[in-house]
Write a structure and sequence with these properties.
By secondary structure, this protein is an alpha/beta fold. The protein is built from nine helices and five strands; from the N terminus they run βαβααααββαααβα. It has a single domain, classed as P-loop containing nucleotide triphosphate hydrolases (Rossmann fold, 3-Layer(aba) Sandwich), CATH 3.40.50.300. 56% of the residues lie in helices and 12% in strands. A five-stranded parallel sheet has the order 2-3-1-4-5, sandwiched between helices. The protein binds adenosine-5'-triphosphate (ATP).
Length: 209
């Protein structure tokens, strides 16, 4: 199995890129979804989060109030470190399970290219776990416009999120492949198709060794 992480800042085009990899036949694991699953009601991590941050972060229906937690850790580094100590090992373990499940599928090829949609790859220092890292980049102004036009997001809100995320330079530093998403959709998809073809060759080579 050849593990490929796709990362990029908010609105860079990660989901569009991973969707294209999926169209090309790659299984995709969504790291954000896994991160949400580990704090679902009944999960031990949720009880630990409530123990650390108080019942104020639990909604009436027993689910985690993610916005309440985000507000706390946004201004308190120690709280953020505690949250990460609770959640990160579990996210990593569950991702490993997903990968093992894919490996165990009948007829799974050993050189299969598996894509992980990993928004916080750089922030969580996970790049070393992957055979390849695809970084999706687009200028801030383009991202602000796309997110405002297509999702109605407030540009100020998007700017604040961008400021809290890793920088493009930090992402480039771990990239094996860089996608330039400043152009149209056709250009984006063509780049992904080229990268996909190259990753197939790399994974076959690695497996033949
Ligand atoms: P998020 O960080 O919020 O998950 P993302 O990085 O996954 O975002 P996408 O959802 O793929 O980004 O793209 C953001 C928005 O911009 C979407 O509405 C998408 O359809 C649009 N978009 C992405 N790439 C292009 C492009 N090249 N041309 C036009 N629109 C695009």
């Amino acid at each position: 199995m050849y593990l490929v992480a796709v990362t990029g800042g908010i609105g860079s085009g990660k989901s569009t890129v991973t969707a294209r990899f999926a169209e090309r036949g790659c299984p995709v694991i969504d790291a954000d979804r896994v991160a949400r699953e580990v704090v679902e009601p009944g999960e031990p991590a949720l009880a630990e989060v409530a123990g650390r941050f108080g019942d104020g972060v639990i909604r009436q229906d027993g689910s985690l109030d993610r916005a309440a937690v985000a507000a706390i850790v946004f201004v308190d580094d120690e709280a953020r470190a505690d949250l990460e100590r609770i959640t990160h090992p579990r996210v990593a373990a569950r991702m490993a399970e997903r990968i093992a499940d894919l490996n165990a599928e009948p007829g799974a090829r050993p050189d299969r290219v598996v894509v992980i949609d990993h928004p916080l790859l750089v922030e969580t220092a996970q790049a070393g776990r992957f055979d390849a890292v695809v970084v999706v980049l687009a200028p801030e102004a383009v991202r602000l416009r796309r997110l405002a036009d297509e999702r109605g997001m407030d540009p100020e809100d998007v700017r604040a999120r961008i400021a809290a995320q890793a920088t493009d330079a930090e992402r480039r530093a771990v990239a094996t492949h860089v996608v330039d998403n400043s152009g149209d959709l056709a250009s984006l998809l063509a780049q992904v198709d080229r990268i996909h073809a190259e990753l197939l060759v790399r994974s076959e080579r690695l497996n033949a060794r």
